[in-house]
Amino acid sequence: MIAIPDLLLPEGMTDLVFLALISTSFLGSLITVAFGIGGGGLLLAVMATLVPVSALIPTHGVIQVASNLGRAAMTFRHIFWPALPMFTLGSVVGALAGGAVVVNLPAAWVQIGIGAFVTWSVLGKPPRGVRDWPLLVGAVSSFLTMFFGATGLFVATYTKSQELPRHAHVATHATLMTVQHGVKSVAFGLLGFAFAEWWPFIIAMMLAGFAGTTVGLQLLHRIDDRRFRYALDTVLLLLSARLIYAGVTDLWSGR
């Protein structure tokens, strides 16, 4: 077993848990850059079982800022800039609204709703509102991410609706998610979350994510746009099915 320096371990975290999370950060970034989506949700799912609930969403958000920023920087010339201004404004509005809400949203219904919406968008024609209303997409997804963490699936529907080449899709989605997670992280800081004790761990996760991005880009270069869209649609449908299943299961069990 590799000995992990105590500096990198938040209170109560074991070496084995740390290594599992670092590996997941690497794999999640690789998956996202190679196939367009999925890594953030994978990381959140694993962190949800290994990180205290109170720290889950804030730390995941900061890690995702760095992961997406790295992807955006490495694919900078492919970014579709017109998508950014109104989405950014919507993200600020959504994060402020989410931070002001006291009660929790019904997670099961949100999971079912997002899963059904994305399935419809993949199998049918993306709704015109998604394609033309980045302000609304930014506001809704940022509001939801304050509670549930990974809304990249929802944002990917908007990015996909722009019908961009594979490199532009990855670059634009990464840029939009950098904005969204950045706004969310600032909001949690203003709400009083103590990031200080988590910074060494967060930085280690960021570095692992950057390594995953580097490897994932090599895969992205080797596939064509048709295969990329097929892979993206497949991943979107699988993640949507997982969301719907999780929501129905929670409702059935009465959670």
Describe this protein's structure.
This protein has about 260 residues and is an all-alpha fold. It is about 75% helix and about 0% strand. The longest helix has 29 residues, at about 225-255. It has helices spanning about 15-35, 40-50, 55-75, 85-100, 105-125, 130, 135-150, 150-160, 165-190, 200-220, 225-255.
Which descriptors apply to this entry?
255 residues, mainly alpha
Measured on Cα atoms, how large is the radius of gyration?
Answer: 17 Å
Number of helices: 11
Low-confidence stretches: none
Order of helices and strands: HHHHHHHHHHH
Q: Care to count the β-strands?
A: 0
Structural class: mainly alpha
- What is the share of helical residues? over 70%
The largest β sheet comes out as: none
Instruction: Give the termini distance in whole angstroms.
Output: 38 Å
Q: On the 0-100 scale, what is the average pLDDT?
A: 82
* Percent in strands: under 5%
Q: Tell me the overall shape.
A: globular
